[in-house]
Design brief:
The chain is an all-alpha fold and 462 residues long. 71% of the residues lie in helices and 0% in strands. 52% of the residues are buried.
Length: 462
């Protein structure tokens, strides 16, 4: 172990984990469940976030080479599986772009006219503007985008979240009328039937990023002791902030009126109007949008790096491994922009903004669930295939714990995957066959592409 390696404190690692998970858009999505969201947050934390965070730390400290997921999958099953795993990580992020950009559009609408958040054309146009502006910025590499990240996460996520929780606390203590029932019955009121939990896939997508936290596991003084502590403390903070952030939105915005892209600002409008601070509504909208812009900008650049590693290893076509003078992967960035643009057309043909938002978010969630099922299998394979490899952190409990956590993670992911094909009961999604068909086409197409790349590579090698 090098004496020159960076050493992260427990607090720093915990902060990294919290910042990589918490999402304002996910909080708004869960507001559809009201008080029932608390049970869903606990379920996903125990069956998904903690298991994936722990196994990712074991893999990251055993195979710390640059490439992350690609290296883990390659060492377990070969280069083709490595490419498939890395492709899933990349395409999940790209498919999520229209969701992120539309959330920014819905937020910015409150700086001008809140009704614009329900206008499909407005959301579509702003989504494209945000998309290509961020792609253009990333042509200049990390010099610009990297500077935006730290303050973007703080200003664009933590401050709005803390502010809205504080406003909600004052509002509740004043005895104002609420749209949430804080009773035993209220905890289960929105969990009746499979269609009522169809949005659960979006919560799984919100809680992704544990493998990013794991990349820092070797940078703490004592990985075996400090990393699990950081994960459990981070999980507690995430669940606390998400639950109270979700309830802050749900108590003042009726479920029937909640906008998935503007729910945060809907809640701010109620609170700020109640406390005679309406002048802060456009200010909050603009500041939050700018901050989210910076955070997403870095995500776009970071998304490309993993897939580039597969091109350098001879798997992904070298055509996409072209960098400009700023070391930005220009062709891959163009590909991301084109795919995001095509997916954004969903805002035109779906019946409303909420349904458009959800069908894209759902597709990204399903692809992500496929990846995490594969990740659990990779973990088992590497533990059995390479017991001799030193890991700075090993999930305690031996093989029984490994099999138990994997079974819980895989079964929960498969269950949520199939439930997410059911149109949610919370809002209309139009023709159910169109809804399901769109998801099936997205999954088949995006899973077929890496297979096609593998076949072409094999044919050319003959």
């Amino acid at each position: 172990m090098s004496n020159n390696r960076p050493v992260l404190g427990l607090l720093t690692l915990m902060t990294i984990c919290v910042a990589s998970i918490i999402s304002l858009r996910g909080i708004v999505l869960m507001a559809e469940y009201g008080f029932s969201s608390t049970l869903l947050y606990l379920f996903v934390t125990l069956t998904f976030f903690i298991p994936t965070a722990l196994l990712s730390a074991e893999l990251a400290t055993g195979w710390p080479q640059e490439g992350g997921v690609y290296v883990w999958a390659r060492e377990a099953f070969g280069r083709s599986t490595g490419f498939f795993a890395m492709w899933l990580v990349w395409i999940v992020r790209v498919v999520s772009y229209p969701v992120l950009f539309s959330f920014m559009a819905g937020t910015l609408a409150f700086a001008f006219s809140p009704s614009l958040a329900d206008n499909k054309i407005f959301v579509f146009i702003l989504t494209l503007i945000f998309c290509w502006s961020i792609i253009f910025i990333n042509f200049f590499g990390t010099k610009i985008s990297g500077r935006l990240v730290t303050w973007s996460v703080i200003v664009g996520t933590f401050l709005p979240l803390v502010f809205i929780i504080a406003l909600a606390a004052f509002y509740i203590f004043e005895g104002q009328p609420l749209h949430v029932s804080f009773t035993w019955h209220g905890a289960f009121a929105n969990l009746e039937g499979l269609s009522s939990i169809a949005l659960l896939a979006g919560l799984y997508l919100m809680f992704t990023g544990a493998e990013f936290c794991a990349l820092y596991a070797n940078d703490v003084k004592n990985p075996a002791r400090d990393y699990p502590r950081a994960i459990f403390w981070a999980a507690a903070i995430i669940v606390f902030m998400c639950i109270f952030g979700t309830l802050a939105v749900a108590v003042v915005v009726p479920q029937s009126e909640l906008s998935l892209i503007a729910g945060l600002m809907q809640a701010f409008k109620v609170f700020l109007s109640h406390y005679h601070m309406q002048y802060l509504i456009p200010v909050m909208a603009i500041l939050t949008t700018i901050s989210l812009f910076g955070a997403v900008s870095n995500l776009v650049y970071g998304t490309s790096k993993g897939l580039i590693a597969t091109a350098e290893d001879g798997i992904f076509p070298k055509f996409f491994d072209k960098h400009n003078k700023h070391d930005a992967p220009v062709r891959l960035l163009w590909a991301q922009g084109i795919i995001a643009t095509l997916l954004s057309l969903v805002f035109i043909y779906m019946p409303n903004v909420n349904s458009s938002y959800w069908v894209v978010d759902d597709a990204a969630s399903q692809l992500m669930l496929i990846f995490y099922v594969l990740l659990f299998v990779i973990w088992i394979r590497l533990r059995l295939k390479h017991p001799e490899v030193h890991r700075g952190y090993i999930v305690p409990g031996g093989k029984p714990m490994m099999y138990t956590l994997s079974a819980i993670g895989i079964l929960a992911s498969i269950f949520v995957f199939f439930v997410s094909f059911i149109p949610p009961s919370q809002f209309k999604t139009g023709d159910p066959w169109v809804f399901v068909g769109s998801l099936v086409v997205a999954i088949v197409v995006f899973c077929f592409i890496p297979l096609l790349v593998a076949v072409v590579r094999h044919y050319r090698s003959q």
